[in-house]
Amino acid sequence: MKSDLEIAQEVTLQPIALVAKNYGISEENLELYGKYKAKLSQSFCSAQEGKQKGKLILVTATNPTPLGEGKTTVSIGLNDALNRLGKKSIVALREPSLGPCFGVKGGAAGGGYAQVAPMEDINLHFTGDFHAITSANNLLAAVLDNHIHQGNALEINPKKILWKRCLDMNDRVLRNVIVGLGNQADGAMREDHFQITVASEIMAILCLAKDMKDLQERLDKIVVAYNKKGERVYAKDLECTGAMAVLLKDAMQPNLVQSLEGNLAIIHGGPFANIAHGCNSIRATKMGLALADFLVTEAGFGADLGAEKFFDIKCAAAGLTPSCAVIVTTLRTLKYYGGLPREEISKENREALEKGLENLEKHIENVKKFGVPAVVAVNRFATDTEGELSFLKDFCAQRGVRCAIMEAYGKGSEGGEELAKAVLETVEAGEVNFHTLQTPEQKISQKIELLAKEIYGADGVEYSNKAREELKKLEESCYSNLPICMAKTPYSLSDKPNLLGRPKNFRIEIRELSLSAGAGFVVCLAGDVMTMPGLPKEPAAKKIGFENEKIVGIF
Amino acid sequence: MKSDLEIAQEVTLQPIALVAKNYGISEENLELYGKYKAKLSQSFCSAQEGKQKGKLILVTATNPTPLGEGKTTVSIGLNDALNRLGKKSIVALREPSLGPCFGVKGGAAGGGYAQVAPMEDINLHFTGDFHAITSANNLLAAVLDNHIHQGNALEINPKKILWKRCLDMNDRVLRNVIVGLGNQADGAMREDHFQITVASEIMAILCLAKDMKDLQERLDKIVVAYNKKGERVYAKDLECTGAMAVLLKDAMQPNLVQSLEGNLAIIHGGPFANIAHGCNSIRATKMGLALADFLVTEAGFGADLGAEKFFDIKCAAAGLTPSCAVIVTTLRTLKYYGGLPREEISKENREALEKGLENLEKHIENVKKFGVPAVVAVNRFATDTEGELSFLKDFCAQRGVRCAIMEAYGKGSEGGEELAKAVLETVEAGEVNFHTLQTPEQKISQKIELLAKEIYGADGVEYSNKAREELKKLEESCYSNLPICMAKTPYSLSDKPNLLGRPKNFRIEIRELSLSAGAGFVVCLAGDVMTMPGLPKEPAAKKIGFENEKIVGIF
C-alpha cells in the first residue's frame, strides 16, 4: 500500500495557472507562489462580489472518532467526481496547521487518490497565511505589553488581559507562562498564555471578513483587556490595527491549488472548530460560488458543531444558502458508536451497527432542522460487507435520505461517482428551505438552550456561577445579538466525550462564556477546551525528513 | 520631500521574470512569489556550483551612529551605477526583520532613489524565510521540552538548556519567561528566553550552509543543552532535524527582487551582526558571482565587526575572495566621532572632522590587513560643504585610497557613478592579496587577542572568571579550531560604546563565550548583547496602515 505522500509525488501536476484558466481565471489575476500554488489577486476577488451563482454543498459528518471518517478525502473526491460527470465544481478547504503535522496527525490534505497537491507545501508553510496571522496576533500582544511598560495610559489591568500570544506549534509548556521576568527594562511581569495559531481570534476574523475594510473593522473591535475601571479595552485603542491589517493583506487572498486529478481547490483559512467556527474563509467559499456551478466545502468536527456553525455563523455572516449537506460516516465508526471496542469494528455486527445508526439519524434530523436536505456518504473500507452496506442504505431510504458508497480514497473520482450523483439528484430536487436556528433577536441564553435541546438532544442547560455572571453581563451589553459558538467535545452529541451514539437524559453544562467581538460571536465553553496541543511521546516530526532529496514522513 | 515608500510606489516595476532573464535566468528556474519576487529553484542553484567568476565587492562602513550612514542605500546605488556603466552587476542584501520594522527603524530596503522593491513586501513577510526559521527554531524547542515531559531519556538537565525559543517581533517581555506552569499535563516548568528570529542560530546556519546536505549536518550539530553528566546534547539526539530541514527547504533558496532602476537584487538571510556574522547567505553571494561580473554585498555594523566577520567567517566558509571593500561614511558621522553634539554636525567644523577621520583611518588600515583594497564612499548630505568634502578626499589620497562622493539617495545611479568608477579602477588595479586574520591553527585565546589588538586597537584582553572557564573547556574540545564571532558594541572600535573615534589605552573585556556549533563559530561576548529588542514609546507600528487602499508608514 502506497502512502499518501508517495501517491501524491507520483502525480505530474499541471501548472496552477493552467488549472485556473479552466475556471476562467487568467494569469494576470493570479499571484503565483511557485508553479503549483497561487493567490487570487485582490482586484479579481473584488470583481467577483455579488456574482455568486453556484450551488453550495456542505460536507459534514457524524461525531468524529479516533478511527477517522475522512471528511476532507470525501470533499476532494466528491469534487473530482462532480467534475468527472461534466459539472464545473470547486472544492474549498481549510489550511492545515503545522502543529498537528509535527504531532500525531501528520498532514491534512485528503488521502489516497483524493488529495490536494502539492501536499508537502500545503501541509508546511503553504503561502504563509498562518505565519501572517501569528505575526499580527503577536504584534498586538507586544504592543499591549509595551503600552503597559511605557506608562499604561489606558490603565489596562494586568490581571484582566484577555489577549494571548500564539505560535503554530504543538507546545504544551507555552500554555501557561510568566512573561516579563528580569529587570525594569524587561517589561511588566504577568501571567500569559500561548495558543496555537488556529485558535487565535485573528484566524476566525480572517475567515469571516468580507474584504479588507471589514477585516480592519473586525480587528479594531477585538477586546484585548479590561481597564482598571472594568471597561473593555479594544485593539483599536492600542493603535496597531492598521499594521495588523497590513500584515494580513496577502493572507486575506484565497489560495488556489489542484486535486491529484487536476481540479481546482481553494484552500484558505482554518479556524479551530471549538472556540471558533471551523470553516474555511467566506472569501474562498464565495469565490468558488462565483467561478463554478458547484462549491463543495467542509466544516470541522461532526454536524452538531461543524454544520451548525457553518449554518448559524458562516452562512449567516456571508448571506449564503447551502443546497445540500453530505454527512460522512463509516461502518466502522457506526459500530464504534454502537459500543464495539476498536478491535472488533472491522467485523460484521448488525446489532452494534443498528445501535450506532442512532447517531447518524440524529445528525440527519439536525441538518433538516436548518431546511437543508441531507445525503449520507459511507466512506468505504475494505472490511465493509455488502450486507452491512445495504442495511445502512435501507435505513437511509426509509428516512427519505439518499445514501451513497464513497470509494474516492482508493479509486479517485470514479469511486466518487455514486455520491456525486446522489448530490446532484438532491440539489436538482430543490428541497431547500434554509434558515438559521440562531437569530439575532434571541437572547444568548435562548440560543444556548436552543442548541442544547434541538441539536444535542439535551434536557436543558446548567450554568456555572462564573458563566451565569458572564451571561448576565453579555445579555446587558451590545453583544447580546451575536450568535453563540459552542466549544464542547466533538466526540459526543452531548458535552461528555464518552457518551457515544445518541445520548439521552443529560444537561449541557456551560462553564464559561467569552466574547470574540472581532470574529462576531460569543464562545460558550461546555467543558475543557485545549487551545494549545502538546506533542505525543513519538512526534510525527521524528519521521519527517529528506530521503534521496525527497520529503518523507508527511501523510 | 517624498518618503521612501512614496518614491517606491511611483515606480512601475518590471515583472521579476523579465529582470531575471537579463541575467540569463529563464523563468523555469524561478519559483515566483507574485509578479515581483521569486526564488531561484534548487536545481538552478546546484547547477551554478563552481561557476563563480564575478568580482566580489564588500560594502562596509565606519562605526555606526544614530545618524545613519546608509550602507544599504550605497550598496544598491553602487550596483545601479555599475549597471549604468554597462557592467553586469548584482547586489546581494540581507532580509529585513519584522521586529525593527514595527519598532523604531521602519523598513530596511535602501532609501530615496536607491531602493529595492517591492519594499512593502520585502519589509513584511517577503517570501516567508524568517517565518520558516521561526518554525524550525520553535519545533526544536517544543521537541526538547516534550522530550523532558515524556520521561527525559537523554537526561537533559533542565537548568542547562541552551536552546531558546524565538519570534520575529520586538517583544521585551519575552526576554525572560517561565514556561510549563499549570498542571502535570502542561509540561515541566523552567526558565526560558525568547530571542528575535534573526538571533536564532538557525538564521546563521541558513546563511552559512552551502546546500541542503550542509544545512542538515549543521542542524544536527547544534548544541541544545547539557545532560546531567555535563555532556553536550545535540539537536540530532532529539530526532527532529529532518523535520527542521524540511521546514527550511524553501527558505534555503535565494530571493530575487529588483532595484527601482530594474537591476537584479538577491535578498537572502539576515543574521544578527553581534552574536552572528551579519551577512546575507553564502548561496546568495555565490549565485550573484555566478550570474554577473560584479556582486556588491554588505556586512552588518562597521568594518571592525562586519567586514572582519565577512572575511574571517563568511569568505572563509565559502572560499570567497573579495576584490575591494567600500567603506561608507558621512561628514556628519565623522564630525560626530570628532566629538560634536548632534545639533552641530551639519555645520562646517574642520577640527571635529579631522579628529573624526581617525576612525575612518583605522577602518582603512583594518581592511588592508586582510589584503583587500579599500575605497571610501562619502554618502553625501545636503549640508556637506565642498571644503569639507575636498579635505576628506585629500585625506584619502594621502593614504593612497580612492574616495568617491555618493549621491544615489537623491539621484539614483547617476549619483553613484563616481563611486562605481572608483570601485572599477580599484578592482582593475588588482591589488588584492586576500587572507583571513583568524586561522584554524590559532587557539581561541589567540584569535581573541588578535582581533582585540589588530582590529580594535586594544592593548590586550581581560576575561571574566566565567569566560576563562569556558575558554578552557572550548580550547580542550573539538571546537578550538572554529573562528570566533565577536559580540561587542558596534558604536566604538572598543567595547565601550561611548569611546568614539579611535580609542587608545583600553583592554577588551570578554564576559562570556558560547558555542554556535551548527553555525560553526564561538561567540565571544564583550558586553551586554540584547537578542530580543523592545518597542519604543511610539512604535513605528502606529503609523503603518492603509490609506486609500495603499500601504502607508513603512519607510
Could you explain the architecture of this structure?
The structure is a homodimer of 555-residue chains. The first copy, chain A, has 19 helices and 26 strands. Chain A is of the alpha/beta class. Chain A has 3 domains: 303 residues, Rossmann fold (3-Layer(aba) Sandwich), CATH 3.40.50.300; 117 residues, Domain 2, N(10)-formyltetrahydrofolate synthetase; 83 residues, Formyltetrahydrofolate synthetase, domain 3. In chain A, a hairpin with a 2-residue loop joins strand 5 and strand 6. The interface between A and B is large, with 75 and 75 residues. Chains A, B: One of its GO terms (molecular function) is formate-tetrahydrofolate ligase activity. Chains A, B: It is an enzyme of class 6 (ligase).
| Secondary-structure arrangement, i.e. CATH architecture of the largest domain in chain A | 3-Layer(aba) Sandwich
The total count of helices of chain A amounts to 19
What is Rg of chain A?
23 Å
Considering residues with a beta carbon less than 8 A from a beta carbon on another chain, report the largest interface and each chain's count: A-B, 75 and 75 residues
